[in-house]
Amino acid sequence: MVSIEGGGGQNQQKLNMYAAGCAIVASMISIIFGYDTGVMSGAMIFIKDELKIHDTEVEILAGILNICALFGSLLAGRTSDYIGRRYTIFAASIIFMLGSILMGYAPNYGVLMTGRCIAGIGVGFALMIAPVYSAEVSSPSYRGFLTCLPELGISIGVLLGYISNVAFGGLSLKLGWRIMLGIAAIPSLALAFGILKMPESPRWLVMQGRLGEAKKILRRVSNSEEEAETRLRDIKEVAGIDVNCNDDFVKPDPLKKTHGEGVWKELIIRPTPAVRWILIAAVGIHFFEHAVGIEAVILYSPRIFKKAGIVGKEKLLRASVGVGLTKFVFVFISTFLVDRVGRRRLLLVSTAGIIAALAVLGTCLTIVEHHHGGQLVWALSLCIISTYTFVAFFNIGLAPVTWVYSSEIFPLKLRAQGYSIGVAVNRLMNATISMSFISLYEAITIGGAFFLFAGIAVLAWFFFYFLFPETKGRSLEDIEELFSKGISGRAEAVKSDM
């Protein structure tokens, strides 16, 4: 067992290893997605050379996955309410596998784009369901740690993608990038079989009236019988089931919606004040995660380093590996901080660091761009350092907290589809940056682009400071109360966390 500090900071609770195993398996889909993101960074260099595509087509290729992921995430919310969290992860694996096979085959740009679109739908499913599943099998004391695992999986995948660029970059132009993209089909198939060995989310089972199954799973993912009973009682209360009911199965009331029907009306058309603010918080954090420009660095790091003064494909790819390694290290560190330090503090420190790093990167790139003599070694060094610093601050706070926070703040009935809205916004912003960065820096210079991202990060800091109360250590069933107090009440909650 691994000890993790509980929400109050005084009691020590042990991490349940079965719950951890469930979250790890669910997070494997994130590794596959991260791999696709990282490997595409280098693969685009070779794809452009072989298929003779221009920069606009490169931007579309980079961003189309996220446009399709937007629709995939919205579809996944209703799907996971209908067939369950586990089978939704299975569907994500199969869809992504088919997309990878098609991309690996790709005789032309059209087929490559088709494969990327299919993979994008799988990505949308994966990004929506993995954190929700992890949050729903976790106890409050280590929920942040387990819900961070999908983001850690993405960072591992990105690093593996960069390494794959270097490993296969020496193959023939026709073969190299196809192996880079197509090899992701193998782990996708393995995950599809692996997830079927995992249990269903106990919270979803309670919503279906399957109390006996939920009780058995809660006993396995809890550290004591008392903890399992407490969690089951809280879930039954939120689901509208008599807390004293000991039946193994309760036939759902036909007037109650147990498969996600009517949720959109409660989220969008007639939300309660608490749900309205929860939705604003979820959409806002997903918007800012990519609006600060991280995708420009992840996807276009070779171009950024080339603008800074590095020449040669091999050197550019190796410099990009540093981005992936930095991302992995700091996401790994954040998994141990999010339940100790808290979501809010990590978010504010992270965003402040992002602002500083982007300002330095924008300044150095501007100096290099206006320098017409030889290579400015000091400016090149600062560009690399500030890029890695940006990635470090982003991944120690904003990246993992986005997924942890938005997966835990929605009420049980609204969680899957509410979270899917956040993921859809996330993918929309990801696609916007992916598909516009080249055009953006050609219009306002590459330094100007990063100054713009720094300005957006300033807005993000104030948004988080005034609207985000701490959720560390609270049960999923209690968090809605934090958003029920109105602006003045939330301000007091925020102050008490400082």
Task: Summarize the helices and strands and which ones pair or pack.
Elements: E1 2-5, E2 12-15, H1 17-51, H2 55-83, H3 85-105, H4 109-137, H5 143-147, H6 149-168, H7 173-182, H8 185-195, H9 202-207, H10 211-221, H11 225-239, H12 263-269, H13 273-291, H14 294-308, H15 313-337, H16 343-370, H17 377-408, H18 415-444, H19 446-467, H20 486-496
Antiparallel strand pairs: 1-2
Family: Belongs to the major facilitator superfamily. Sugar transporter (TC 2.A.1.1) family.
Transmembrane segments: 15-35, 60-77, 89-107, 113-133, 145-163, 175-196, 277-299, 319-339, 346-370, 376-406, 418-438, 444-468
Keywords: Membrane, Sugar transport, Symport, Transmembrane, Transmembrane helix, Transport
